[in-house]
């Protein structure tokens, strides 16, 4: 059986509170925080980007499973904020974990679900015995335009999954996808900030895809919501994932562990990876997990996962919770400086 | 810095690859092919070694007049740290208030962006250090570094 050999996560230490962002635009911070169910969000430091986050998450995964680079046959990094337009993130990750040169690598893009597409690619290659292990990474440092609704949620973080068929801590029993051409959110080539369709990002986009894909997954697996111990979906804000999970028949106890957006914001491609990592931090052998990613444009990937006895042998002392609660709160001026929102004029 | 020059040193910067001298049984960073302490004998006796990435602060200072490329950090901490294997290196300590860094504090390596060759140029990545929070409480006796937020 193929599945997850190891997992790693990374959330930047810097955070900004929703009220601080609202105060700059003369908005009601409490109302924004409550409406979005986002109270603070992570911010990458001046020396952090998709590449550094991908490396840190992958190194944690490699360390946990005591793997070295020789065991890795593929690295795929899914993100919509790769630092280079041309030059792969994945080759830098490969070099930083000592996996070069005997591997294949590429970067994926499918809005917020590029990383889960990478999981499916690794599953195919492992299942076909082309590689021993493959690494799928989901990571982002996305931005919202100043004053836009996205600015309250767009944050940074990511995770890495080592996919293989030996010593797996969780089997991936099934995976399925649901894909349509739905233009709910986009960023044109050369543009700094994305644009979105406002309310159009809800019902015909996020909910239609996540709920349909979740239902298809349970139908394929022959399961119902009550058969799962945990569920994690993409979480563009703190409300959408709760409504989607409830529509699928899940309860608070099943979705609260993987729901991180209220404290760290929307980590885009990193969201399902981080939620799943938070679940694996505390999961017990036999626990069953449903994970449903969503990427604008649009599509969903779902995974039916069962935790194995191997997880008890893994060092899980470095947790997502530690990273989420480790906070260096910054003000909007510092945030604007770190995120390149200041016009540096001729000095830059 | 030229692209080839940085590329030649990727493993040194990314993965803290240095050298181990089999004659004097000492560690060196960055990588060297000759150990002056052992003289000619060390030629051919130096082997690559990947440092664990843990150590402690020997000395530190807070930089208020940032050098070019570091304006976004100001003020920031630059420290001399001693790796557990012995070599001392100069590095930036990140993700904490710079003034809380004191000699004796434990640190560990992190992968960070070191700089870039202009807005359209190549990006440089490598190793910086953060305070090792799992060990920081052991320094409470100093009386001046409690309640560290890292």
**Main beta sheet of chain B:** 5 strands, antiparallel
The global form of chain B is: globular
By CATH, the architecture of the largest domain in chain A is named 3-Layer(aba) Sandwich
Strand content of chain B: 35-45%
Q: Would you kindly provide a written description of the structure presented here, covering whatever features stand out?
A:
The complex is a heterodimer of chains A (348) and B (150). Chain A is α/β, with parallel strands linked by helices. Chain A has two domains: 3-169 and 315-347, Thiolase/Chalcone synthase (Peroxisomal Thiolase, Chain A, domain 1), CATH 3.40.47; 170-310, Peroxisomal Thiolase, Chain A, domain 1. Chain A has twelve helices and 14 strands. Chain A has helices spanning 18-24, 29-36, 50-64, 89-96, 114-127, 202-221, 240-247, 252-255, 261-264, 271-282, 320-325, 332-338, and strands at 3-10, 14-17, 40-42, 74-78, 104-108, 133-141, 156-164, 170-182, 185-186, 195-196, 230-233, 288-295, 297-307, 328-329. A nine-stranded mixed β-sheet of chain A has the order 5-4-6-7-1-8-13-12-11, with helices on both faces. Chain A has a three-stranded mixed β-sheet with strand order 3-2-14. In chain A, helix 1 packs across helix 2 (29-36), helix 3 packs parallel to helix 4 (89-96) and helix 6 packs across helix 7 (240-247). The longest helix of chain A is centred in the middle third of the chain and has 20 residues, at 202-221. By secondary structure, chain B is mostly beta strands. The relative contact order of chain B is 0.16. The longest helix of chain B is centred in the N-terminal third of the chain and has 6 residues, at 3-8. Helices cover 11% and strands 38% of the residues of chain B. In chain B, the strands form two sheets. In chain B, strands 6-5-4-7-8 form a five-stranded antiparallel β-sheet. Chain B has two domains: 17-50, no CATH class; 54-139. Mean pLDDT of chain B is 89; it is low at 135-150. Chain B is built from three helices and eight strands, in the order ααββββββββα. The chains are: A alpha/beta (348), B mainly beta (150). At the A-B interface, helix 3 and helix 4 of A face helix 2, strand 7 and strand 8 of B.
């Amino acid at each position: 059986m193929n599945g997850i050999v190891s997992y790693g996560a990374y959330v930047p230490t810097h955070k900004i509170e929703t009220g601080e962002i609202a105060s700059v635009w003369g908005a009601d911070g409490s109302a924004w925080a409550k409406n979005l169910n986002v109270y603070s969000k992570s911010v990458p430091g001046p020396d952090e980007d998709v590449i550094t986050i991908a490396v840190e998450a992958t190194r944690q995964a490699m360390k946990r499973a005591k793997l070295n680079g020789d065991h890795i046959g593929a690295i795929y990094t899914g993100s919509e904020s790769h630092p280079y337009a041309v030059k792969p993130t994945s080759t830098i990750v490969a070099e930083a974990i000592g996996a070069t040169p005997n591997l294949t690598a590429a970067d994926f893009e499918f809005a917020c679900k590029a990383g889960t597409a990478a999981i499916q690619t690794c599953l195919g290659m492992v299942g076909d015995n082309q590689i021993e292990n493959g690494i799928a990474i989901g990571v982002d440092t996305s931005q919202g335009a100043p004053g836009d609704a996205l600015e309250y949620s767009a944050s940074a973080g990511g995770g890495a999954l080592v996919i293989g068929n030996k010593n797996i801590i969780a089997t991936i029993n099934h995976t399925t996808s649901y894909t349509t051409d739905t233009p709910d959110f986009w960023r044109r080539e050369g543009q700094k900030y994305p644009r979105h369709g406002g309310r159009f990002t809800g019902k015909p986009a996020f909910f239609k895809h996540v709920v349909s894909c979740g239902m298809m997954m349970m139908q394929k697996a022959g399961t119902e919501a009550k058969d799962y111990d945990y569920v994690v979906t993409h979480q563009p804000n703190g409300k959408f994932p709760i409504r989607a999970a409830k529509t699928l028949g899940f309860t608070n106890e099943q979705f609260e562990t993987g729901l991180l957006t209220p404290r760290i914001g929307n980590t885009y491609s990193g969201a399902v990876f981080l939620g799943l990592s938070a679940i694996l931090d505390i999961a017990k052998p036999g626990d069953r997990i449903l994970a449903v990613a969503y990427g604008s444009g649009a599509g969903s990937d779902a995974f039916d996962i069962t935790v194995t006895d191997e997880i008890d042998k893994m060092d899980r002392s470095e947790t997502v919770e530690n990273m989420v609660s480790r906070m260096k709160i910054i003000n909007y001026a510092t945030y604007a400086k770190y995120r390149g929102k200041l016009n540096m004029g001729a000095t830059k | 810095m030229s692209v080839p020059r940085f590329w030649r040193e990727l493993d040194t910067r990314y993965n803290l690859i240095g050298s181990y001298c089999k004659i004097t049984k000492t560690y060196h960073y960055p990588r060297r092919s000759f150990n002056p302490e052992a003289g000619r004998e060390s030629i051919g006796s130096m082997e690559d070694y990947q440092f664990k990435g843990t150590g402690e602060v020997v000395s530190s200072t807070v930089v208020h007049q940032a050098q070019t490329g570091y304006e976004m950090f100001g003020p920031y901490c630059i420290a001399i740290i001693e790796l557990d294997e012995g070599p001392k290196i100069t590095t930036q300590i990140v993700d904490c208030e710079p003034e809380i860094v004191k000699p004796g504090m434990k640190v560990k390596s992190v992968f960070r962006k070191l700089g870039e060759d202009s807005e359209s140029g190549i990006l440089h990545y490598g190793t910086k250090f953060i305070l090792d929070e799992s060990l920081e409480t052991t320094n409470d006796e100093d009386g001046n570094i409690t309640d560290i937020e890292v």
